[in-house]
Amino acid sequence: MKECTVLELKDKFGRDDLYILDVREHVEYMAGRVPGSKLIPLSELDKQVASLDKTKPIYVLCRTGRRSAEAQRKLKALGFDNVINVVGGFEEWKKAGLPVEKDEKAPWSLERQVRFTAGLIVLISALLSVFVHPYFVWIAAFVGAGLMFAGAADWCGMALLLAKMPWNQRKSTAPSCNS
Question: All domains of the chain, ordered by start, with CATH?
Answer without folding.
Answer: 2-95 (3.40.250.10), 110-168 (no CATH)
